[in-house]
Design a protein that fits this description.
Length: 442
């Protein structure tokens, strides 16, 4: 290769590396579809690239879930200290998440985004006949008799149960638990890093899988992906505008319109950054400046929500799990539906508030009910578009909880809540002046 060609290639490569990951994945998807459509059956030779990627993802699931859940649960150490408010927030977060995923499942059931795709089951899965276990058996099986065997066999629900139990025990033993918590925190960090590294391979994995799917099915597979986007957005709108409005008006007798006006800045940041952790400063500002929530409440409930509350992510997992089941022609039993609700609700505790985290956690939900992980690669190409919507829901959910809890604790300034944006800013200014004067006089 001449020097000029290699330096040109080097420039192209460094430009490619500077492109954001979600865009790289989108490019991988578009190229994969193009190659598949142009070369037809021949493009299926690229499938092993996708299979390799899926195998690498599988490698991450058990250790990632185990460590991140323990860290999620032990991060609630302060929750125990905060007593009543901590308990209220935790219960509120879990209930709203379970409702979100149920909405996702209903929307996915009605819209049927994957119907008619008829993808072949990956080898080894086709001869598995699904037996419906009894309710009693399902409940009993949730508890692992041997946690190490559960980890080794990838029994995800059992791993989750053990991780949550261990996390709670580590918190309860106080100082004795600190060294182990540190170890899990460090392992979780390492798993996040490894996930980060693996996700860098996603554009190529998605390319291989899309070339295979498009090679076999042509562009017919684009419509189902479009339907997934529509389904997730409809679900998110129902959850935010419908369910949250009901919660605000019925439980707290608050006007939802004032709420949505007050959080508009945070929504804009969430939509554009796809990170609820990154949106936290904006959410804090909205809560205290525009909604009139006392900082005592928001500085505790909001960071907790960012860590453990992911309504949008759970809703998305409901829709996409159904999409994958429909795409591969797998019938889900009602036990599967319940398992999806339970897994996604618990998984949301361990999902980080960063872009793309929900996609990794989707692998967990799919593997719990025995759905093919190839489905993740189908979703990966459009994931950023879905991430923007689900992050808005995640952030709105945190702010709804904060407002409802503040109201129930008499820590919501109603004059402030009902004021318009300009008045709110004036009131916030006055509060700051009052706080500063009080601090000086102390
Ligand atoms: N991006 C989401 C968030 O930060 C998490 C996810 O990927 O679902 O809230």
């Amino acid at each position: 290769m001449s020097k000029q060609t290699s330096s040109a290639l080097g420039r192209v490569w460094s430009y490619w590396m500077s492109v954001p990951l979600w865009l790289q994945i989108l490019v991988g998807m578009i190229l994969g579809i193009t190659v598949g459509v142009v070369f037809g059956e021949q493009a299926t030779v690229l499938k092993p690239i996708g299979t390799l990627f899926v195998n690498i993802i599988k490698m991450l699931i058990v250790p990632l879930v185990f460590c991140s859940l323990i860290v999620g649960v032990t991060s609630m150490e302060d929750t125990a200290k905060m007593g009543r408010i901590g308990f209220k927030s935790f219960a509120f977060y879990l209930c709203t998440t379970a409702i979100a995923i149920s909405i996702g499942l209903v929307v996915g059931y009605v819209i049927q985004p994957g119907a008619g795709l008829n993808l072949p089951l990956p080898s080894g899965m086709s001869d598995v006949v699904k037996e419906v276990p009894s309710v009693m058996q399902t409940l009993l099986d949730i508890v692992p008799t041997n946690p190490i065997a559960a980890l080794a066999n990838g029994q995800i629900l059992q791993v989750i149960v053990f991780a949550v139990a261990l996390g709670i025990a580590l918190v309860l033993i106080g100082d004795h638990g600190k060294p182990a918590i540190k170890v899990f925190e460090s392992l979780a960090e390492a798993m996040y890093k490894l996930t980060d590294m693996v996700m860098k391979l996603a554009p190529y994995g998605v390319f291989g899988l899309m070339a295979w799917v498009a090679g076999e099915y042509g562009i017919d597979m684009l419509l189902p992906l479009l339907k997934v986007i529509v389904a997730v957005y409809i679900g998110c709108i129902i959850h935010v505008l419908g369910f949250y409005s009901i919660v605000l008006s019925v439980f707290s007798k608050l006007n939802p319109l004032h709420f949505f006006k007050g959080i508009s800045n945070a929504i804009a940041v969430a939509f554009t950054t796809s990170s609820s952790a990154g949106t936290l400063p904006a959410s804090m500002k909205c809560a205290s400046e525009y909604l009139g929530v006392n900082k005592k409440i928001s500085s505790f409930v909001l960071p907790l929500g960012t860590t453990i509350n992911m309504d949008g992510t759970a809703l998305y997992q409901g829709v996409t799990a159904l999409f994958v089941a429909q795409a591969f022609g797998i019938d889900l039993t009602w036990v599967d539906y319940l398992t999806i609700i339970l897994t996604a609700t618990l998984a949301s505790i361990g999902t980080a508030g960063v872009p793309g985290a929900g996609l990794v956690m989707l692998t967990l939900v799919l593997s719990t009910v025995g759905l093919p992980l190839e489905g993740v690669a189908l979703i990966a190409g459009i994931d950023r578009i879905l991430d923007m919507a689900r992050t808005v829901v995640n952030v709105s959910g945190d702010l709804v909880a904060t407002t409802v809890i503040a109201k129930s604790e008499d820590e919501l300034d109603m004059e402030h809540y009902n004021a318009d944006m300009v008045q709110s800013a004036v009131l916030a200014e006055q509060n700051i002046i009052l706080e500063n004067t009080a601090a000086k006089n102390r």
